[in-house]
Amino acid sequence: MEERQRDADRSQAAILAAARDEFAEHGLGGARVDRIAERAGLNKRLLYYYFDDKEKLFQAVLEQTYRDIRDRERELHLEDLPPADAVKRLVEFTWNYYLEHPEFLTLLNSANLHRARHLQGSKRARELNSPLIETLAHVLERGRKEGVFRGGVDPVQLYVSIAGLSYFYLSNNHTLSAIFGRDLLAPKARSERLSHMTDVILGYLLAP
Amino acid sequence: MEERQRDADRSQAAILAAARDEFAEHGLGGARVDRIAERAGLNKRLLYYYFDDKEKLFQAVLEQTYRDIRDRERELHLEDLPPADAVKRLVEFTWNYYLEHPEFLTLLNSANLHRARHLQGSKRARELNSPLIETLAHVLERGRKEGVFRGGVDPVQLYVSIAGLSYFYLSNNHTLSAIFGRDLLAPKARSERLSHMTDVILGYLLAP
Amino acid sequence: MEERQRDADRSQAAILAAARDEFAEHGLGGARVDRIAERAGLNKRLLYYYFDDKEKLFQAVLEQTYRDIRDRERELHLEDLPPADAVKRLVEFTWNYYLEHPEFLTLLNSANLHRARHLQGSKRARELNSPLIETLAHVLERGRKEGVFRGGVDPVQLYVSIAGLSYFYLSNNHTLSAIFGRDLLAPKARSERLSHMTDVILGYLLAP
Amino acid sequence: MEERQRDADRSQAAILAAARDEFAEHGLGGARVDRIAERAGLNKRLLYYYFDDKEKLFQAVLEQTYRDIRDRERELHLEDLPPADAVKRLVEFTWNYYLEHPEFLTLLNSANLHRARHLQGSKRARELNSPLIETLAHVLERGRKEGVFRGGVDPVQLYVSIAGLSYFYLSNNHTLSAIFGRDLLAPKARSERLSHMTDVILGYLLAP
DNA sequence: AATGAATGAGTTTTCATTCAT
DNA sequence: GATGAATGAAAACTCATTCAT
Asked: Which residues form the HTH tetR-type domain (chains A, B, C, D) (predicted)?
């Protein structure tokens, strides 16, 4: 009985991982159920047994994806750092997380292409919301009080901006590389981008 | 003769417009050739007559899309404005263009999902490159000389950042709205976003 | 398990038989996958499930066709007969096999129209080679030693000639009938042809 | 006016030649009207203008093909040669004509696949019949009278046999080459085949 | 829990043919 | 006589999903 349960868990995890890769690579429309089963090394019928249909499977992948990044964000402990360091750390974390999880970007693109309807039904919508928003609000408040940050900064706007600077560069990496004729993921290009983004965010935040 | 030619052009244009909308709405994988023909009000066979297959049609759409935004960028005449105004205008233009052309965002996402292979073969790759990069370089240089801008700013990085700030907000609008539980496209939210982005970019650029 | 396996085998066999008939009747280019499925009484999708595509299905049919005639040739036991009888038997067998398997002729024509590329990839090319060539060589050798056959006869040439005499008559039966204005498959015409062919081959082989 | 007529004739001839090649290469089912037009360097509409449809075009090609070989046969003048030489010449002619007109073989195969229905309607059916049959009858008669040929030989059977020996070898050249693992069209193989065929036919005919 | 066989409804693509000039 | 544009029907092939065990 226990054995069976463990098998079941393992199978579900294998399916989720395979589905995540397939959806990330081809989008929701381009993903193939057959390929997911093959990637997972399991019978196709099992996908339906555990996840009902392709759409629900996509939703499960999305939820897991959000859960993962939120867990990581929670480990940042920005509240323990001086304001400027905290912001810098957030910029770096965002950049590195996107770099190491390229599937996150394409999954979000797919979710948005479908107008986020896969999140609508998500019961754990709470889980989706970033715990960072509140933390960031505190950091900004602290910075303002200490006189290092400008005031009137909306933490949501800032959070979105920090994400956007990394996201666009990495998500559109292929078209940008084609247009500019240079490899945006070369080591030097990477560190220049990170440094630029930090400059932009801190240049904006730091009080004159 | 003229008539016929004009009809051919009109048909091709109708197909391109229909395809652009369909690809934008459903992505490359989710787009349906039948629907494109229906949208265009033309026989499906004609799509193949003019564009060979779905992939080439997508490529044609992409090229036209780039051509359009590049044409608009060319009309900005940033070189005639004071540096800070020029940058502000660019931020506003980018924001408004994306707002008015939501298809641009999803098309680029699709192109990137497919690793920009549809641009690889594009003979007119030159056309893809933004004419703004050089203009922006001049603006930055002027600003630095006038003592209003900081030095050492890479125009490509800045261009990408300006784009990213708008792009992420609008492209991921649905997931973000779901997460934050607020409508990011409400009039007030829009003006707040534009104002925030301008603050970020100019806050970064303006010399202390 | 057994049941299922047997069903799979039965389905594949039904598809192969239906495909053989359809290809024989219409050629590779004229054959219709829909019709094959209908003839087999199975879902069209299954053809692709088992044989990938139309080309591979044609290849499978060809291989099976060759296997069948080779099996029959093996049952002839020409080595047990006096040389002249052995050759006579081969002429008769060839004639009758072609008569009873008209699909063999058109399938070979199709294969040749496509430059036999469907045999190129066939791993079991060995199976295609007739076991008769060696047997025929022995028969010719025996006949020569016994003084009844002329010497210097290449068994491959002879084999091809025996086949050609029947093949051309039957494969081109329709045009020949149209040209000569007589039914080449009427009973009398058949026996006359067989008798003529035997005369030709033995008239050539028998030592003067 | 005259000019026009000449253009029209030239166009029709170009279409026929292109169609002959296309049909020979791909069979009736595999031939493409577009490709025929392209090969002919003419507008597709013109094929329909002159030949009504694909089927009628195929019929026209067939008729022309028969006309051509019949014309050549008429030039043989077998009646002027000693009987054995006449037969030898016919074997050689058949072999060489097939070698030089590989399209003849595949066109006949296509015609037969379609049960020669394209000849049925042919008004000039008379043209199809070989003038050689009668000539060959005379040659056989002469040979018998001179005591060099055996008696009781049906000229039609002999004609078909002579054709079959060459036809099968050349028409099935690809499968035979694959099966026997040797190139049947290599120069040495060619001359051996011709010599073998002559031996077979004369070995059969020559009185003991 | 797991799986190979089977399927209906699409999906892209092709093709012979016709229209309009 | 000649042609580019257009089309309806059908072709090969695909896909998510279900059946039966």
From this structure: 9-69
Three-class DSSP category at D186: coil
> Over the range D121-131, which residues count as b (16 or more CB within 10 Å of their CB) and which as e?
ebeeeeebebe
Q: Check if the beta carbon of residue A117 is closer than 8 Å to that of residue A186.
A: no
Give me the residue label for tokens 């800070």. B84
Set of chain A residues whose Cβ sits within 8 Å of the Cβ of B200: 161, 200-201, 204
Shared domain check, B176 and B74: yes
pTM: 0.91
In this predicted structure, what is the pLDDT of residue C2? Answer: 43
Question: Given a cut of 70, is residue D112 above it in pLDDT?
Answer: yes
- Kindly determine whether the C-beta of residue B123 is less than 7 Å away from any atom of nucleic acid strand F: no
Q: What is the pLDDT of residue D1?
A: 47
C160 in the same domain as C99: yes
Tokens of residue D138, six digits: 């005379």
A30/B29 touch (CB, cutoff 8 Å), yes or no: yes
Q: Give the N- to C-terminal CA distance of chain B in Å, as an integer.
A: 65
Say if residues A162 and A90 touch (Cβ distance below 8 Å).
Answer: yes
**CB burial of residue D76 (10 Å; 0-12, 13-18, 19+):** middle
Q: What is the residue-level pLDDT of chain B in tens, covering all 208 positions?
A: 344 556 889 999 999 999 999 999 999 999 999 999 999 999 999 999 999 999 999 999 999 999 999 999 999 999 999 999 999 999 999 999 999 999 999 999 999 999 999 888 666 666 778 889 999 999 999 999 999 999 999 999 999 999 999 999 999 999 999 999 889 999 999 999 999 999 999 999 997 7
**Type and span of the H or E element at C89:** helix C83-100
Q: What is the DSSP letter of C122?
A: -
* B104 vs B94: CA distance, rounded Å: 11
Paired strand residues for D206: D149
In a domain, D90, yes or no: yes
Alpha helices in chain D (DSSP H): 2-30, 33-40, 44-51, 54-74, 83-100, 102-113, 117-120, 125-128, 132-145, 155-171, 173-180, 187-205
Q: Are residues C156 and C187 in the same domain?
A: yes
Between CA A160 and CA A164, with CA A163 as vertex, the angle to 5 degrees is 80
CA distance to partner chain A, nearest, from residue B145 (Å): 19
The two most distant CA atoms of chain C are separated, in Å, by 65
Q: Answer yes or no: do C25 and C72 share one domain.
A: no
Tell me which amino acid residue A58 is: F
Residue contact A154–B201, C-beta within 8 A:
no
Asked if D57 and D15 count as a contact pair (C-beta separation under 8 A), the reply is yes
Q: Is the minimum distance from the CB of C207 to strand E below 7 Å?
A: no
- Please report whether residue D184 resides in a domain: yes
- CB neighbours (10 Å) of residue C7? 10
Asked whether residue B46's C-beta has any atom of DNA/RNA strand F within 7 A, the reply is yes
Instruction: Give me the residues of chain A with pLDDT under 50, please.
Output: 1
Below-50 pLDDT ranges, chain C: 1-3
Angle, nearest 10°, between helix axes B187-205 and A187-205?
110
Pair (C45, C68) in one structural domain: no
Q: How far apart are CA C64 and CA C21, in angstroms?
A: 13
Q: Please name the amino acid found at residue D103.
A: E
3-state SS track over B148-179: CECCCCCHHHHHHHHHHHHHHHHHCHHHHHHH
Three-class secondary structure assignment of B101-119? CHHHHHHHHHHHHCCCHHH
Chain D nearest-CA residue for C152: D196
Report residue B181: phi and psi, to 5°. 65, 25
Q: Angle CA(C61)–CA(C66)–CA(C72) in degrees, nearest 5?
A: 130
Of C193, C192, C191, C173, give the one whose Cα is nearest residue C183: C173
Cβ–Cβ < 8 Å for C19, C57:
yes
Task: Tell me the residue range of the domain where B192 lies.
Answer: 63-205
Find the CATH number of the domain harbouring C16.
1.10.10.60
